[in-house]
Amino acid sequence: MRCDTLWTQARLATCAGDGLGLVERGCVAARGGTIVFAGDAADAPVFDAARTVDCEGRWITPGLIDCHTHLVHGGDRSHEFELRLAGASYEEIARAGGGIVSTMRATRAASEDALVASALPRLDALIAEGVTTVEIKSGYGLDAASETRMLRAARRLGRERPVRIATTFLGAHALPPEYAGDADGYIAMLCDDMLPQVAAAGLADAVDAFCEGIGFSPAQTERMFRAATALGLPVKLHAEQLSNLHGAALAARYGALSADHLEHLDDAGVAAMAQAGTVATLLPGAYYFVRETRPPPVAALRRAGVPIALATDCNPGTAPLTSLLLTMNMGATLFGLTVDECLAGVTRNAARALGRADTIGTLEAGKACDLAIWDIERPAELVYRMGFNPLHARIWSGQ
Ligand code: NIG
Ligand code: FE
To answer: Is 240 in the same domain as 299?
Structure first.
């Protein structure tokens, strides 16, 4: 069988099936950017390879997927970090006009070029750790021009670097000052004007909202979901981060790809997610950075069979984090996830949280050839270390 590249002498964590899909003497073959074989070398067809790479016993995993980020934004919030160190809470700062709205001001003031330039070092940090797909949300523009500028900048990042970008429209992230006291009016504008424009321009792959006391109510969230569904866009939700508004169950009713954060999720929410097949995207970096003390109900999610993804939530307010490896360590140390759950959370289940389980997230024939090749002895090392990067090589689309 002809192929472009054959990686031999590799140990594989294919992440296919339920566990890690470990293969001790494995190989991977790619043609035209797609995996044509991944598995035990003893089962492989005879390949006529244009190029052969001896992996010398290194481990290959699927390229990592960061399925929840706010990577594109203007400015930073190191000043608010100092305020929080002096005792202010995240909610107090937000209610006093800081928080998301302060990043909104910086984002509105930034050109598309400036947004791309400031996001590139963050994207490069992810890429350096073997990340091959990144989801990026809007939500710091909060007017049509700025939200579309953010999404254009996000799409452009996918042309500036060898990485897949999934974009998510998060117009319902915070109430912009123009709509003070009129959250319903803002939601109506999003549903009637802004979202249809964004969808028509092909700028969004999904629609998200922040369902929270300092965000939007379940009724307002549901209006966003209806508008998204009418346009054929899948939904996801920032749910149960600071309180329990039953957003996850609402998201599940709309067949959401994922509900994210979930520290305050209750049993009914878990059951609804399990029934709908909605992924639980956990964000331990945000939990750590805002010094949350209530972890998400991992045992209940596990019992119910809800797929768990892990993501950085890279954003200037609650998670200035650009390491998916550290995120896995936090998932294990802070939330009690196993090594297998952490690795599935940044591969197979992260793909599912983006609605892309058929094309990325595992090492299987027919999927995109996105690989991370690691200088490690055991997969657990990827979760165990803090601040160490054992990436040997990263392959995107077979290159
Ligand atoms: O995912 N919760 C809402 N959105 C972000 C935080 C945004 C911000 O503070 O700038 C989050 O944590
Ligand atoms: Fe977020």
So the answer is: yes
